[in-house]
Amino acid sequence: MSSKFSRLTVALGLTLGLAACSGGEETSTEGSNASIGESLDYKITGIDPGAGIMKATTKAIEDYELEDWEVIEGSGAAMTAALKKAYDKEEPIIVTGWTPHWKFSKFDLKYLEDPIGVYGEEETIHSIVRNGLKEDLPNVHKVLDQFHWTPDDMGVIMSAIQDGEEPEAAAAAWIEENEDKVAKWTEGVEAGNGEEVKFAYVAWDSTIASTNVLANVLTDLGYDVTLSQVEAGPMWAGVADGSVDAHIAGWLPLTHADQYEKYDGQFEDLGPNLEGAKTGLVVPTYMEIDSIEDLKE
Ligand code: PBE
């Protein structure tokens, strides 16, 4: 009974409120009229501070003159959790996004157009190894040099992990189903004898997938593989100072350009292991904006 009354009161109050506004100037208090910036408190959901995409996003804020906006630091996992939460309620959200990534198969998403080109064009992911690896572990070097796959291959592992599989198990299952591809990576390679191989990687879903698949392949070949999860800076620094043997997450030409220049000469670039990568600002398709310029209002 009392609930009926209170509901009536609210409805009446709303009617009066609208009536009071109707003759006046425009109001933006209603959800759908609020600007995209207001509805998001001018926040872009970012990832780990060391990621190249964070630097690019800071540059985007400058180049598109979005001084009211900021990119919030977090992690890849926190970003996808925030994305899921907003998506389930059809609320607005803008994330720092990249391809290949499982989020595009789980949610309907789009990249915001980037007319200035802050995020660059298509990228490739390179395998980066320490100087001297070729002499010390020629067969490991050869596998890394021959390692090459597609965004779809990587996507299978990423989705399996997302669905709850352990990264190692997801990688092992993919290897079992793709013996022909793995055979090309291991062509002409001799088995190891327990030699240690150290990879550095960052907890980006794409990198977790690729690092686990190579760790599995090398373990099957008889190597003793260690994976160290680090931030992006230490991942590059570790290969440069030789404390790790390799990482396979060199995003080029733009995303990791800083580290690539900083450590020039202190690593060997084995070239692309994947083509068709991309970074940018990503939103659910239900959002009405299409371009980073639309954030300016
Ligand atoms: N990423 C995924 C990384 C490279 C791999 C796009 C988040 C970065 O921004 O550095």
UniProtKB/TrEMBL annotation:
The keyword Transport applies. GO terms for biological process: choline transport; glycine betaine transport. One of its GO terms (cellular component) is ATP-binding cassette (ABC) transporter complex. Gene3D superfamilies: Dipeptide-binding Protein, Domain 3 (3.10.105.10), Glycine betaine-binding periplasmic protein, domain 2 (3.40.190.100). The keyword Transcription does not apply. It is found in: Cell membrane. It comes from the Bacteria. Residues 37-177, 196-296 form the ABC-type glycine betaine transport system substrate-binding domain. Keywords: Cell membrane, Membrane, Transport. GO terms for molecular function: amine transmembrane transporter activity; carnitine transmembrane transporter activity. Pfam families: OpuAC (PF04069). PANTHER family: GLYCINE BETAINE/PROLINE BETAINE TRANSPORT SYSTEM PERMEASE PROTEIN PROW, GLYCINE BETAINE_PROLINE BETAINE TRANSPORT SYSTEM PERMEASE PROTEIN PROW. This is Glycine/betaine ABC transporter. It comes from Bacillus weihaiensis.
